[in-house]
Amino acid sequence: MPAVDLSSFGPECFINRELGWLEFNLRVLEEAENPENPLMERLKFLAIFSSNLDEFFMVRVSGVREQAFGESAPQDESPDGLRPVEQLERIAARTQELVARQYRCLRDSIAPAMAAEGFELVRLADLDESQRQELDAFFRERALPILTPMAVDPAHPSPRYHNRGLYLGVQLERREGLGPKRLFAVVQVPQVLPRFVPIRCDLPGQRRFVLLEDLVAAKLPELFGGFDVVSWTVFRITRDSDLELLEQESDDMLKLIEERLKARQRGQAVRIEVSARAQDESLSRSIIDAEELHVAGGAIAGGYGEVYRIDGPLDLTCLWELHRLPGYDHLHDKPFTPRMPRGLRRLGDDLFTAIADHDILLHHPYDSFDPVVEFVTRAANDPRVLAIKQTLYRTSGDSPISRALISAAESGKHVTALVELKARFDEANNVSWARQLERAGVHVVFGFLDLKTHCKLSMVVRNEGQGLRRYVHLGTGNYNPTTALLYTDLGLFTADEQIAEDASAVFNLLTGYSQGHAWRKLIVAPNDLHRRTIELIDDQAARAREGRPSRIVAKLNSLVDPDVIESLYRASQAGVPIDIIARGICSLRPGVPGLSETIRVRSVVDRFLEHSRIYAFGADDDARVFISSADWMPRNFHRRVEVMVPVESPDLAGRILEEIIPVYLADNVRARVMDADGCFHLRHPAEGEPAIRCQSVFLEERRPWVGDTAGRLPVPTTPS
Q1: Phi/psi at 650 (nearest 5 deg)?
Q2: CA–CA gap between residue 233 and residue 132 (Å, rounded)
Q3: How confident is the model at residue 702 (pLDDT cuts 50, 70, 90)?
Q4: Do residues 462 and 471 touch, judged by C-beta distance below 8 A?
Q5: Is 611 a catalytic residue?
Q6: Which pLDDT score, from 0 to 100, does residue 436 have?
């Protein structure tokens, strides 16, 4: 790592955000490489690696390109000192390395393992006559009516390739009839057909497939009659897909989002992937020229890594097709049934009575998400409920919560839904739900044009005879039953009046710009979450300097904000023990003598996506525990509406401090520890130490820890 100037927090104290994200995606790839994972789960991680990389280019790389080459965008330095052009160069070099590693994993490890299980990807030349006839029938009946051969010449301008669409690029030579002597043409591979086309196989237990693009390529002479196919290849375009709304004005945000969704397919290209089979350089040049992908000064793409030559099938998100095939349970993770959260005996009991009696903590996916759905659906049907207020950031396609809100509005209840239309890549789904909610009589609002509403809040107002009572659910994750089975999150049910009053104020802010509320317990962004977070960190530093016990634990998705990082450095210099559990990006350098030697950073990438945000400040009985929708990133602090809520029940705070955080810190199977250079290294059990995999511990809900509430690392008492 570079030398660190301890007299100030200069660029050498920070790790580049974009490069840090690529290292996170490497950790995803490592799960695909891990032979201890079930085979279909390894396929899943390969697909996730690809979809992650797509989003990275569509959003992050497009943003860096805009800084580097935009007409009015200055080349601002990031906190680590890298200018945008330097970032693009390093991103390209590292991405090339990671993609090559991904395809080695597929070719050398996963494909042979799949073949051993009876899966085989075959070439058309290896098929017998009956199999070719079967594929020919598939092509003529299902593919040919969809396909459109498109010539590219002065009379036929280049088509606008769809974002992430798969295309065949073809060099043709006229044999007879109309047209130029040589011609470049394209054919889009239909996305509505399976990428893996099954082939009849007589051997039991075997599944054979051909790739759809190979089948289409074999039929190119039929699509371009009168021409000989000189060469062909597969290519794919990734486009800038971030919705820029800050500078726009509109009387109707819903219409504005719909317009921008249409424009997304026409965004500037940021990456061209071309199959390495394209030996004909003129073919690759035709693809690039047709796209007209340019950078600063009119230089053609490729100078900053926009062109990627892929040694294998393009777009490995197609592996989801194989992952979802029925009948291969032995190749998947063992299924599990979420349990009823502690504090609730069974679904169907009086949920509101239970919440009024005590706060309830939910730890998903280990605890069932059903009580959260029940909270809204029961409220919709309860005659004593007068109002429901709900934020919706990412919902499922068939959202039971949205349907319950519709039912409540149709029955005459006062229902308000804050639908965040700017939830990246869920905009279309949210637009659809917003339309349906509006038609049912729900008061739908969309928050602010320049702020995303990212907080997770649900509130029910109920007439209980003696007066009105408000019940609140606050969470770290979305109101989505599907992802609640895949993401780790925390939720809190409470009837605490001060929290409820604050929750009402959040909704009033969202619906009517109402401000000036004196917050009792919730800490809200963009109002004061940034300031309060730094105050909480600085308070622990002051305690350490006074010789009092201190500690900070932060479990989050990403740690990027430079002001918070500098506060953590000051706390470390004061002697505060600090544990960061960061799933994704961490721009802080841990373990640097004199700077951050008391800071440890680890990351857990495993079966479930680690999504919960937990913050604990203090040691022993002085610890203050919070859950939040917000990471420690500038966007969460300054460009989003976020909420951090204290967990004040001693039992629930104790559960987090004694049963959740220590298990994460003890993981020596799926946890990776970060060094000062930003590299993560997989932990392994020491000699005589039991193997502890935190997600397995949570699934089994065992208590492998003896009483240790003083902020030290836990002592294992049973093996995992």
Answers
A1: -55, -35
A2: 22
A3: low
A4: yes
A5: no
A6: 84
Q: Write out pLDDT tens, residues 505-557.
A: 999 999 998 899 999 999 999 999 999 999 999 999 999 999 999 999 999 99
Closest CA to 339 of 315, 363, 309, 312: 363
DSSP 8-state code for residue 553: E
> Vertex 97, ends 22 and 123: CA angle to 5°?
115
In the block, residue with structure tokens 């990807």: 121
Residue 598 structure tokens: 């008391």
- Dist CA 75 CA 83 (whole Å): 6
DSSP codes of every residue in 434-491? HHHHHHHT-EEE---SSSEE--EEEEEEEE-SSSEEEEEEEESS-S-TTGGGTEEEEE
Catalytic, out of 323, 363, 364, 454? 454
Contact between residue 697 and residue 704 where contact means Cβ atoms under 8 Å apart: yes
Structure token digits, residue 320: 């989801």
Q: In this prediction, what percent of the chain has a pLDDT beyond 90?
A: 69
pLDDT at 614: 98
Would you state the structure tokens that stand for residue 594, as one six-digit string? 């004199």
Tell me which H or E stretch contains 694: helix 694-700
Q: Is 340 helix (H, G, I), strand (E, B) or coil?
A: coil
How many Cα atoms are found within 13 Å in the side-chain-facing hemisphere of 582? 29
Over the stretch 607-616, which tens digit does the pLDDT of each residue have? 999 999 999 9
Residue range 585-597: average pLDDT?
96
Domains of the chain are 351-521 (3.30.870.10), 524-700 (3.30.870.10)
The pTM assigned to this predicted structure is 0.90
d(CA 720, CA 703): 11
d(CA 551, CA 543): 9
Among all chains, which residue has been given the structure tokens 């509130």?
A: 459
Distances 318 to 42, 211, 578, 586 between C-alpha atoms, Å: 13, 10, 41, 30
Q: Sheet of 227-239: strands edge to edge?
A: 150-152, 182-188, 166-174, 227-239, 269-275, 307-310
Burial 48-82 (b: 16+ CB within 10 A, else e): bbbbbbbebbbbbbbbbbbbbbeeeeeeeebbbeb
The greatest distance separating any two alpha carbons of the chain, rounded to the nearest whole angstrom, comes to: 90
Amino acid at residue number 394: R
Report DSSP letters for 647-676, one per residue: ---HHHHHHIIIIIHHHHHH--SSEEEE-T
Tokens of 500: 């409820």
Q: How far apart are CA 257 and CA 526, in angstroms?
A: 23
**pLDDT at residue 268 in the model:** 81
Q: How confident is the model at residue 279 (pLDDT cuts 50, 70, 90)?
A: low
Burial letters for 255-288: b for 16+ Cβ neighbours within 10 Å, e otherwise?
A: ebbbebeeebeebebbbbbbbeebeeeebbebbb
